[in-house]
Amino acid sequence: MSGNNKSPYLTPIAGNGLLDRRLFLQGGLVLGAAQLVAGNARAARQEPAARPEWMSVPGQPFTLYGQPAGYEDEVVRYPSPNRQMRNSGASWTPLHMLEGTITPNGLHYERHHNGVPQINPDEHRLLVHGMVRQPAFFTIDNLLRYPMRSQICFVECGGNSNAGWNKAPSQAEAGYFHGLVSCSEWTGVPLSTILSEVGLDKKAGWLIADGADAFAMNISIPVEKAMDDAILALYQNGERLRPENGYPLRLILPGWEGVLNVKWLRSLKATAQPIMARNETARYTELLPSGKARMFTFTMDAKSLITSPSGGMVLKQGPGLYQVSGLAWSGRGRIEQVDVSADGGETWAPAELQAPVLPKAFTRFRIPWQWDGAPAVLKSRAVDETGYVQPEREQLVAAQGRHGFYHYNAIVTWSVDEYGTVTHVYTSEAQQADSDISIDAGWD
Amino acid sequence: MSGNNKSPYLTPIAGNGLLDRRLFLQGGLVLGAAQLVAGNARAARQEPAARPEWMSVPGQPFTLYGQPAGYEDEVVRYPSPNRQMRNSGASWTPLHMLEGTITPNGLHYERHHNGVPQINPDEHRLLVHGMVRQPAFFTIDNLLRYPMRSQICFVECGGNSNAGWNKAPSQAEAGYFHGLVSCSEWTGVPLSTILSEVGLDKKAGWLIADGADAFAMNISIPVEKAMDDAILALYQNGERLRPENGYPLRLILPGWEGVLNVKWLRSLKATAQPIMARNETARYTELLPSGKARMFTFTMDAKSLITSPSGGMVLKQGPGLYQVSGLAWSGRGRIEQVDVSADGGETWAPAELQAPVLPKAFTRFRIPWQWDGAPAVLKSRAVDETGYVQPEREQLVAAQGRHGFYHYNAIVTWSVDEYGTVTHVYTSEAQQADSDISIDAGWD
Fold first, then answer.
1. Is B196 on the interface with A (CB under 8 A)?
2. Is B84 touching A (CB cutoff 8 A)?
């Protein structure tokens, strides 16, 4: 196919073939992508193909609630159950098989401490008590009468990506490595409305949130966040919550560590001090090089991840033009910029951010890449609106030590070999050698 | 519960109790909503309830692909199959049971002309030919290499809401009356990219799009729209398309009539003139009072709908504070304003629009309403960024006559009686009496 190769955007703007993000945005451009469709062009000189078999028979009937195509049956969550208690643990969203920014409800990541309770919504109650003028129960019907708010935001487990602390680079696919994060439109009653309703004591500093699962999950939430943007969520992507995501009621704290977004929410008790629950002392804390533990690390820092191409994929069609596509997000607000490198971080080019760029939500970034067939090393680096820059792995390890387990948000590096095979690597050999822990403890 | 009723926002700003949209947005307000939780307040003086049974047993295990809660099994699409050909027709999205703006994929409306084909994506081809420099086939794998774009937008059937033309007001629930519209994040390759790739002839004015279903759906698309914002969609809300929504490839024309968003897209042929297919001549046209038919009415005009409370619902908890919530959308761009009336249109108050307000997408509007227990008449009226104002039914009928069948976008009126029962009414008795057609022909 003949191409108009005169576009100024076809000149690489960073090493190893990264092209200007505007390449695909200008109208009327013929890409130098003839090899992509050369085979097809030959085919097109023949007559159109015969009618496929599915045009010869009537199609399938209506369904009351639709399901994915059978051909997509490998696009599933990846469960990693606890060895002793198989209904507990986590399951990963297959980020590497998705595009756009919304996670479909069937693929939202899961994290359970004792399985998914089967709650009758007519019997479920939210008790709001403690340091309030008037304690109260709320039924789901009560809550449904209150004014609602919607927010598209991510929820991310504090333990997401923790294989990044491992000695050797994990070769799990991108989603099964970094997919304890998902992004939905959550709708429900602002928690501030309900706290006003019960008359929260001005001296209350914390809310102890309790879940109605068999684990009786509990954790402490600062009142400041509760009054800011917390949502008592009833709906997820338009429909009522899914059981594994807290049906019938879940606390959503946009941008904050997943464990605080308590599912199956049963009670909120206003207190002066945090409860020092297991999941804020023995778990969800980070052991620092000093030997002290960092607690209450609520906000999820900026992070990014190239989802395509990513670990386990092969650039089957050989050298040529590819789209590099990925996700970035920050618990502190909007993503300001994502830079991509194809030469292991020597040079960087800014990726296109898909509008709308929403605060505390997945932001899809994309950039064209002309792969020349030689080995390449792909990275992405997010910057959020506070100016925070996603760290390299060695920076993160230097700051946090090696016993963190939680809050791993370092730059992810994908190596592409001359066959187009993509693997996960650590940039520095030294980093691999001196690592001394293995994250293989499973999930309680 | 004691309430601080001093908020200036508790003074009605329009007839029959419509309150300022800012009532729920200000911090620290105690609503005058004591009656909502009076029963609960009594309960709260007792000890917290005993642990529910689901806290006494381990929960359910992980699922690879999640499903809605069993208690939500009535939240389904409503199929209206053709009597002679039961796999054809339409199925409605239950808008009255949803909140927020995203439609979950399992509930996206359907419109089929001969059922849902079961397409093997590895065998599917898109042929782009006709007035192009170089005709070409594209496999799904080819398309997946191209740069993508995502857009959250609605798709609406031209025949949506057509029971509005009926002589008597339909008493179907809001979604089963107006739910041939849904809103998703669509991701795919800009059609302009592919048309550049094949070298579209400057003299081509139309693209004839063909579907790979047994109906062999075809229709004409203006090149101008194709080059503007049309998407060759591969993903819907993050995951690959569902079969009933065009798997593996669908044309998305943001804001344009559903029938043009060709599913199971098989070929695009560039031509000088439209093909004058059945679905742009015998169907999807509107017979005007003059006897002429209006054709090529591509853009879906602004529309709004109160989804709660809406037809068939009952305000069970009696007089008091309610949230009026609904959806607005326009094929011409952003929704600028939605006004709500509780007195049948005598007075109006502006509703709050949930951010982000995106062009050609569902916009959720909400406004607080203090129902005094007397009969009330609720309406919503959308205004889009072009200044277009959603018409009253009598205006629409005066302009379009009674034989339109398609493009019904009049203001919807819900009557609330003294028992809180909500029914659909036409504002003018005269309108009911002189109607002479019944839309009961089913869908071919």
1. yes
2. no
What backbone torsions phi and psi does residue B194 show, to the nearest 5 degrees?
-70, -35
Q: Tell me the C-alpha to C-alpha distance, in Å, between residue B157 and each of B91, B242, B374, B393.
A: 11, 18, 37, 19
Which of B186, B192, B157 shows the shortest CA–CA distance to B270?
B192
Distance, CA of A264 to CA of A242 (rounded, Å): 10
Tokens standing for residue A135: 């304690």
Q: Is residue B356, in this structure, part of any structural domain at all?
A: yes
| Residues B419, B310 within the same domain | yes
Do B289 and B329 belong together in one domain? no
Locate A287 and state its tokens: 């052991």
Name every residue whose Cβ is closer than 8 Å to that of residue A362 and which is 6 or more positions away in sequence. A101, A102, A103, A154, A183, A327, A328, A329
Could you check whether the bond before residue A248 is cis, i.e. omega within 30 degrees of 0? yes
Report pTM.
0.93
Q: Where are the beta strands (DSSP E) in B250-302?
A: 250-252, 265-271, 286-287, 293-294
Domain ranges, residue B277: 105-294
Burial class (CB in 10 A: 0-12, 13-18, 19+), A436: exposed
Contact A243, B73 (CB under 8 A): no
Task: Give a yes or no: residue B400 inside a domain.
Answer: yes
Interface test with A, best of B2, B57, B84, B137 (most A CBs within 10 A): B137
Q: Which residue of A has its CA nearest to B189?
A: A24
At which of A294, A315, A346 does a domain end?
A: A294
pLDDT of residue B287: 79
For residues A369 and A322, the answer to whether their CB atoms sit within 8 Å is yes
The verdict on B266 and B186 lying in the same domain is: yes
Whether pLDDT at B29 is above 50: no
Whether chain A has a CB inside 8 Å of the CB on B372: the answer is no
SS3 B296: coil
Question: Do the domain assignments include residue A414?
Answer: yes
**Domains identified in chain B, total number:** 2
Residue A182, beta-bridge partner list: A155
Q: Whole-angstrom Cα distance, residue A136 to residue A416?
A: 58
Q: Which of B227, B253, B225, B250 is nearest to B240 (CA)?
A: B250
Q: How far apart are CA B8 and CA B23, in angstroms?
A: 8
Q: Any idea what the CATH number is for the domain that residue A358 is in?
A: 2.60.40.650
* ipTM value > 0.90: yes
Residue in A206, A179, A155, A2 with CA at minimum distance from that of residue A90 = A179
Q: How many C-beta atoms surround the C-beta of residue A356 within 10 A?
A: 18
Same-domain check for residues B169 and B208: yes
The alpha carbon dihedral of B177, B178, B183, B189 has a sign of positive
Instruction: Go through A110-149 and write b for each residue having 16 or more CB atoms within 10 A of its CB, e for each that does not.
Output: bbbbbbbbebebeebbbbbbbbbebbbbbbbebbbbbbbb
pLDDT value, residue A233:
98
Residues A290-318: tens digit of each pLDDT? 888 887 889 999 999 999 999 999 998 89
Residue of B nearest to A144 (CA): B323
Per the structure block, which two tokens stand in for A67? 């399901």
pLDDT of amino acid A403: 74
Is residue B413 a contact partner of residue B427, using CB atoms and an 8 Å limit?
Answer: yes
Mean pLDDT score, B38-60: 68
Could A101 and B150 be called an inter-chain contact, meaning their C-beta atoms sit closer than 8 Å?
Answer: yes
